[in-house]
From TrEMBL:
It holds the Pfam family Abhydrolase_1. This is Alpha/beta hydrolase. The keyword DNA damage does not apply. One of its GO terms (molecular function) is hydrolase activity. Keywords: Hydrolase. Coiled coil: none annotated. PANTHER family: AB HYDROLASE SUPERFAMILY PROTEIN YCLE (PTHR43798:SF31), MONOACYLGLYCEROL LIPASE (PTHR43798). GO terms for cellular component: membrane. The keyword Cell inner membrane does not apply. Residues 28-258 form the AB hydrolase-1 domain. It comes from the Bacteria.
């Protein structure tokens, strides 16, 4: 069943123009990209969701992809709220990876009645602890060195090792068109002028038991050990979470194993379809 072509949209905000894409009709599913990607990391999942009868939306946040922004005070959380309001969406399923997952959590804590369900992949959580193995620390040090030298080409390569291959895996483990896509997405973000006035999110780590929306937690076993440990803690802390570890996958399974992630997201949406509406804020 065809849902038609992907349609792009622009959202004008104070000091920014957010660029996104949508496809399909039905209940909304909003995809939130990782901090080394843009909305293109979700194209396969958007198509799968639309084919299943849902309305898929994704956008490039300030500082990413095709979106444009001045260095003015802003909040990613308020931008997401503005996007939902502009699209006349009261409640949606939020699908987020890494920093996008952290944004989804922040939104669910502030607006629980606007969240039908969550899919969190290798998610960040404001205030979560971080530690690294010695092997992982070597990769982090290479990233810090490239960042300090302003060498964005090397930084892009090191971050591909960190987040696409996995910090303990062989560099170049994931190749072909997937690696080219990563370099293009992350390269666009690295080429943009820094945004220095973004609002820091409130601490969320100690409040995760308050996130009551049905949640699918996914993490790749090649991801940072701290993120895998975080996944395990969240699976025990969040009251309505179902957790899975994806073998042989790092931080960005939506582009590394798109068919698998699409299937898992669609199955989760199918399970949600018969549930009652969430309560109002």
């Amino acid at each position: 069943m065809s849902q038609g072509p992907l349609e792009t949209f622009d959202l004008e905000l104070d000091g920014a123009t957010l660029v996104g894409a949508e496809v399909g009709e039905g209940l909304p599913v909003v995809f939130l990209h990782a901090g080394v990607c843009d909305h293109r990391m979700w194209l396969a999942q958007m198509d799968a969701v639309a084919q299943r009868g849902w309305h898929a939306l994704a956008y490039d946040r300030r500082g990413y992809g095709e979106s444009a922004a001045d260095d003015v005070p802003f909040s990613h959380l308020e931008d997401l709220e503005a996007l939902l309001d502009a699209a006349d969406i009261h409640a949606a399923v939020l699908v987020g990876c890494s920093m996008g997952g952290g944004l989804a959590i922040d939104f669910a804590l502030r607006h629980p009645g606007r969240v039908i369900g969550l899919v969190l992949i290798g998610t960040s959580v404001a205030g979560a602890p971080w530690s690294a193995t010695q092997e992982e620390r070597f990769v982090e040090m290479a990233e810090e060195d490239a960042w300090e030298r302003g060498d964005t080409e090397t930084l892009n390569k090191v971050q591909a090792h960190e987040w696409l291959d996995g910090p303990r895996a062989q560099s170049g483990r994931v190749g072909g068109e997937t690696r080219k896509l990563f370099f293009d997405m992350n390269g666009k973000a690295l080429a943009k002028s820094p945004l220095t006035k973004g609002e820091e999110p409130d601490e969320a780590w100690a409040r995760m038991e308050q996130v009551g929306a049905p949640t699918l937690l996914l993490v790749g076993d090649e991801d940072f050990t701290a993120i895998v440990d975080r996944h395990e803690t969240l699976s025990e802390t969040m009251p309505n979470a179902f957790a899975m570890v994806l073998e042989g996958t790092a931080h960005l399974p939506s582009i590394e194993k798109p068919e698998l992630v699409s299937r898992l997201v669609v199955e989760f949406l199918d399970a949600l379809a018969g549930e009652p509406d969430t309560e109002e804020d």
